[in-house]
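Worked Example 4.2. Consider the chain below.
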Amino acid sequence: MSDTSPNLNFPYLAAGQAQKHVTVNETIQRLDALVQLAVVSATTSAQPASPADGSVYILPAGKTGADWGAMGDAALAYYRDGAWEEIAPREGWLAYVKDDERLLHYAGAAWSLFAADKLLTLSASDVVLGRSAPGGGAAEEIAFTAQARQLCDDASFQEMCATLGTWRVLAQSSVAVSHTGTTTETTLATVTIPAGAMGPNGRVRITTFWTYTNSANTKTLRVRFGGASGASYLAHNITATATLRHQTEICNVNAANSQVGSLNTSFGASTDAVLNSTVDTTSAVDIVFRCQLANAGEIVTLRSYLVELLFAA
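Applying the procedure from the previous section yields the following structure tokens:
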């Protein structure tokens, strides 16, 4: 049998050994150093002149001193009874470092912090909510409603909107864009609906505010769904007025490629026909704001627009 223990290298008592208390006390002293191991520092390189009895240091590369200089890098330097003892760490040992409040582990060659991906291991079905704040680090318990738990499980923002049953603003602008100088239909702004963002029963709500030359000449204001040649859910031919505010909703009807909406009329009764389109919203779709002048010397201005989106499966 070996004279020392396999893990902590403690000396065994020998049969008939004299002064057994010396061996026992040596073991107790090592236990006092290693159990709940807390070291003074892992970065101090100069051997302290007056260490406290029982102090333990992790020795860094480049250490100096009459005793430390002869010890190994990453060894434990244990000061007791006026002398330094070198203790070789074993793989898997943990040490709390007092001066910088870190927990280190010995991996067989060096002391290291735990890798971030080793601190928490999750199964495939685990769901975790994290909290981050400046200067934070402590965990806190947060109570969840059933709906909040569902939001954590939702895989996309569209699914979150469906859970909440709410609209979201897809795009908005209050920067005026004007057109003049040609009678060709011209694009003033474009907003893209991401692929699949509406869902088979979702809808998009479009609000616009226009100003234009007040004359008998026709000014045509358009909101097209599906690009520059798409379905016109606004196609007003304006003459002797100066402003227009318009709102329309384009709704998918139980299919991602079948829409219905009103033409030109925002609210109230109208003789305008219901407008249908067959734009495939599983792909990205452009909403295009356009205008056309009968008199190239006049002007149309898109003062603002708001595009809101509701996802519905």
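The chain has two domains: 36-116, 168-310. Helices lie at 20-34, 116-119, 146-153, 157-164. Compare this with Example 4.1 before moving on.
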